[in-house]
Design brief:
Elements lengths: L5 E4 L3 E5 L10 E4 L1 H11 L4 E8 L2 H12 L7 E4 L6 E8 L5 E8 L16 H9 L2 E5 H4 L3 H13 L6 E5 L13 H9 L2 E5 H8 L4 H7 L5 E6 L3 E6 L2
Parallel strand pairs: 1-4, 1-8, 2-6, 4-5, 8-9, 9-10, 10-11
Antiparallel strand pairs: 2-3, 6-7, 11-12
């Protein structure tokens, strides 16, 4: 197992064209929030590992190849030959005000990654990656995949079993994944992290405010809160 500076845990996804979503073997690109972080940090030269699950299908194979091509260690990325890999399609358009808007359509319920649960953290390759990482990163998307994934994310952030480094949590609020609109679990997870990252627009929907100072006041527990404002700026606020 290669020692990684950063370990990213989540569901890698296949991004396909909306017109090909139901095709047997659509053209695809690799995506997914945590997988994008892993590919980006590895491409910048930071030793990075990805922890998660894919299916034993063409999408799963392409995702593994994509991550490896970017230099990501994949020993802790399980391949489930009996399951399918999650995938999604994006449709771009404009809203009533003429602003760009993107709609995503997912096929991930029951995916290989959705079967993750707290016991996944004890798998030898996963445990080794967690123990060796200086930073462990995940997001609210992983918690939304299934009750098992919610329990896994709670265990990772709250109990820190086998984790010695800093735990970072990106809120990544996606309305499609939370049909009841209740952000309480995501807020609980954010309060358990060392570093929280949240977009100002997401903070408005989850916490009722996008003000960095107000977000910091509503999340007093993390060491650092980072509020991202698109391409304009990112404000990091420590406890002081």
């Amino acid at each position: 197992m290669t020692t990684a500076w950063i370990a990213c845990l989540g569901e890698p996804l296949a991004l396909v064209d909306a017109a090909d979503l139901d095709a047997p073997e659509p053209a695809m690109h690799a995506g997914g929030a945590e997988a994008n972080v892993a590919a980006g940090t590895a491409a910048l030269g930071t030793p990075t590992a990805f922890l998660g699950r894919v299916g034993g299908d063409a999408e799963g194979r392409r995702i593994v190849e994509h991550l490896r091509a970017h230099g990501v260690a994949t020993e802790a990325l399980e391949v489930d030959a009996t399951a399918f890999t999650g995938r999604y399609a994006k449709t771009e358009g404009v809203d009533e005000a003429g602003e760009p808007v993107t709609t995503s359509t997912y096929r991930r319920a029951g995916s290989a990654a959705a079967a993750m649960e707290p016991g996944f953290l004890a798998r030898p390759a996963v445990a080794a990656a967690l123990a060796g990482a200086r930073i462990v990163h995940t997001s609210g998307i992983t918690a939304a995949l299934s009750p098992g994934c919610a329990a896994l994310t709670r265990t990772l952030l709250r109990d820190r079993t086998g984790v010695s480094g800093t735990v970072t949590f990106d809120v990544n609020w996606r309305e499609q994944l939370w049909p009841d609109g209740d952000p309480s679990l995501v807020i609980e997870l954010a309060r358990s992290a060392d570093v929280v990252l949240v977009g100002a627009d997401e903070a408005e929907r989850v916490l009722g405010t996008g003000s960095p100072a107000a977000v910091r006041a509503l999340l007093p527990e993390p060491r650092t809160v980072v509020v991202k404002d698109g391409a304009l700026r990112a404000v990091a606020i420590d406890r002081a």
